[in-house]
Amino acid sequence: MSAATTERTPAVALNPLQRLGLWWDGVVDRYNALPKLSRLLLVILFVLFCYALPLLRPPIITTNAIDFGGVMFSVAAFALVALGLNIVIGYAGLLDLGYVGFYAVGAYTTGVLTTYHWHWPFFLALPLAIAVTMVTGVILGAPTLRVRGDYLAIVTLGFGEIIRICVNNVQWLGASAGIKDIPHPNTIGKKPVPPFDPGGMFAIPHLKWNGWVPSLDKVHETHFLVFGAVDAIPYYWLLLTAMILVLLGDRLVKASRVGRAWEATREDEDAAELMGVPTFKYKLMAFALGAAIGGLSGSFYASSQGGYISPDSFPLLLSMLFVAAVIVGGSGNRWGAMAGGTLVAYLPERFRAFADYRLLVFGLALTVLAVWRPEGLLPPRRTRRAKLVEAQIDELEGEGVVDE
Amino acid sequence: MSETGAQTGGPLTKVLEVDDVTIRFGGLTALDSVSFDIREGEILGLIGPNGAGKTTCFNVMTGVYQATSGQVLFDGKPLTKLARHKITQLGIARTFQNIRLFRSMTVLENVMVGADAHSKVGFWDALLRTPRHRHTESESTTRAKELLKIVGISARHDELAANLSYGDQRRLEIARAMATGPKLLCLDEPAAGFNPAEKLKLMELIRRVRDEGYTVLLIEHDMRLVMGVTDRIVVLEFGRKIAEGTPAEIRDNPAVIAAYLGVDEEDAS
């Protein structure tokens, strides 16, 4: 173990963010060194912890100013979106600045299908929303993916806005008033009968912390599995489940011919093409998959607690935040992207007290990151390795110059 | 060495036929009615001074450029209007004069991208881990490792392509191109930037590649390398073919000497 650590410690002065990267590498190494059974056990424990997090309300992490369950829901939604956008930006290298458009398409499809037009149940509308978003991705991608790099960024930026402006002007979609009273997913278990019967199969108490001493909070309980306006935690669970499924799929697809084709296209599109990769097809696939995941997330958003969407819910700024999440976290690494999504959604809520300075702090944080760790917090392991080698070479060359 | 294989009489299978190809970029004629063919199992050298149109010629064959007139026939079928990846799938692979690897992928992955050229595995195969996926994956891994062994960098298969030395990057390019399972392997100045010892090793490698059953087209500046390794040579100058023949014939061709060797001999020695 110590040998491995010394081997990796470079002769270069590291800034804190790079140390974080090394530390994370160490964690991953130790995890990989474990026997299969312990790894499985650790994963299960971690997943359980994630599910339980809004119930545990651990001190420091929890938000007191606003509902922690709600915050966790938006954190999960952001992480899921970042996961989808990571396929587009991180794997295939397509800078999509209009991702919020897909989020909106997913949300509106769900809204339209479940409310006044059709009254479908949520779980029936969800797959159709994903499909519609995917088709939208193909329709937008087919003409635009022929342009590259900066041009693609501009074109997608335009599409993100076009979708919002279209919705704003279509009466059938509620125009600027949006769609309200979008039904929640069907409750599993007994239907709640307000005001006295909370419904559900059983109730799970939350934890309450007095300093570091936990105790059961019998007043606040989450009823399993009631989707209503009161409690955001069941939505969080639903979203987390979807996220885990997407994560598994992402893993399988990335470690295959498809993932390699994406990466090759990102690295050098012409060379990839001449090595027999039908790059257009794979770019379109990445675009459509990313769109589908954005649609999935948007669909959950539409039918969540508030049950209300309007064009204002999908501003361009949201697109920028999505891209920021992927870049901050480490484009190309699914864990990095999710970490980025988590941070971008969570930090502003946690530090609501400094609400006036939120954007300032966010800007500063981005600047610090750009200077210290332009490749993101948790970039793909290989990028980290390459960067470290580069830094060491720079250092050696620097010494050489000094000697002369 | 130059007398091995194909050109010893009899009907020869033409792998590729460049038929009266002309390319104009605006007013500039980069290739002017060039015709030649490449026969199965041979190493053909394509030489000429700088700006003679070698790389342009290469780019027509691999579909990067479209010919203004004339056509390129591969296995008797015209390549015109075929998508570039389709041309690769038909069996033409190439390396690049200025190395173009997938730098942040590992060495093995680089070769596997090439090996994927004929793979039928799609999204659903990957997601559901179908037998086809597993079968293809293990097959291309084995194949990629074999190729790395042939070019001599199998020890570094887990390294990032960007971290390889210059020479090894050139070797990796050759392995990646071979992985696409080509009938014709085009090497665009593979010896650029090599020292004499490395060039010697490269010559060995090229012969070895041919012995593996590939037909090789070699674009090269270094005359000694070209003379030493090729079976036949085509000489271009200012977009025109000025000579074609065995290395010995080319060496004695006055037009070639005037155009090329006379100038180049000095810095080659």
Helix content of chain B: 40-55%
Structural class of chain A: mainly alpha
Helix percent band of chain A:
55-70%
Greatest interface and its participating residue counts: A-B, 31 and 41 residues
Give helix and strand order of chain B, one letter per element, not per position: EEEHEEHEHHHHEHEHEEHH
Write down how many β-strands of chain A occur, each being a DSSP E stretch of 2 or more residues.
Answer: 2
Describe the model:
The complex is a heterodimer of chains A (404) and B (269). With 404 residues, chain A is mostly helical. Chain A has a domain at 65-184 and 229-388: ABC transporter involved in vitamin B12 uptake, BtuC (Orthogonal Bundle), CATH 1.10.3470. In chain A, 65% of the residues lie in helices and 5% in strands. Chain A has 15 helices and 2 strands. Chain A has a two-stranded antiparallel ribbon. In chain A, α6 packs antiparallel against α11. The longest helix of chain A has 24 residues, at 68-91. In chain A, 44% of the residues are buried. Chain B has 269 residues and is of the alpha/beta class. Helices cover 41% and strands 23% of the residues of chain B. Chain B has 10 helices and 10 strands. Chain B has a 6-stranded mixed beta sheet with strand order 6-7-8-3-9-10, with helices on both faces. A 4-stranded antiparallel beta sheet of chain B has the order 2-1-4-5, with helices on one face. In chain B, α3 packs parallel to α6 (166-179) and α5 (131-151) packs across α6 (166-179). The longest helix of chain B has 21 residues, at 131-151. Chain B is globular. Chain A binds chain B through residues 249, 252-253, 256-261, 263-264, 267-268, 270-279, 285, 289, 380, 382-383, 385-386, 389, and chain B through 62, 64, 83-85, 88-89, 93-94, 96, 100-106, 109, 112-114, 116-119, 121-123, 125-127, 129, 133, 136-137, 160, 162-163, 176-177, 180. Chain A: Pfam families: BPD_transp_2 (PF02653). Chain A: It comes from Nocardioides pocheonensis. Chain A: The chain crosses the membrane at residues 37-56, 68-91, 97-116, 123-142, 224-248, 284-302, 314-332, 353-372. Chain A: Keywords: Cell membrane, Membrane, Transmembrane, Transmembrane helix.
